[in-house]
Amino acid sequence: MTYTVEDITEMIHHHLVLSVDSDDQADSNLCQLVAHIAQLRTHPLLRDAEWWVCDTCGCSVESGVLAEDGSNFTADGGFYCSDCIPGRSNDS
Ligand SMILES: [Zn+2]
């Protein structure tokens, strides 16, 4: 039998919140559970932000929004924001 997230949430609510003697104990149980669940993640919850500065206009760009084709970077190590990539028309 497979349990859904809703099923598991209901079990958590019953066993870790409703069946304990105090709100403090319930909060402690939930904190422990969250810590254990966080260790199950397959990808890090947080990552360090990485910023690039455009060689042309000087704006800062977070690495999470760069073009997937690598067109923000030049062969000699330069960097262009999406508005300044040579040859790209952004007039739409
Ligand atoms: Zn730029």
What level of helicity do the residues show? 25-40%
Molecules bound to protein: zinc ion
Mean pLDDT: 91
Work out the helix count: 2
Shape: elongated
Order of helices and strands: HHEE
Q: What's the number of extended β-strand segments? A: 2
Low-confidence stretches: none
Any overview of this molecule?
This protein is mainly alpha-helical and 92 residues long. It folds into two domains: 34 residues; 40 residues, no CATH class. Helix content is 33%, strand content 7%. It has two helices and two strands, in the order ααββ. A two-stranded antiparallel sheet has the order 1-2. A hairpin with a 6-residue loop joins strand 1 and strand 2. Helix 1 runs antiparallel to helix 2. It is elongated, with a radius of gyration of 24 Å. The termini are far apart. Bound molecules: zinc ion.
Which characteristics define this entry?
mainly alpha; 2 domains; two-stranded antiparallel sheet; 2 helices; 2 strands; binds zinc ion
Outline the fold blueprint.
Elements (H helix, E strand, L loop, with lengths): L4 H14 L4 H16 L12 E3 L6 E3 L30
Antiparallel strand pairs: 1-2
This protein binds zinc ion.
Zinc ion binds next to loops.
What would a concise description of this structure say?
The chain has 92 residues and is mostly helical.
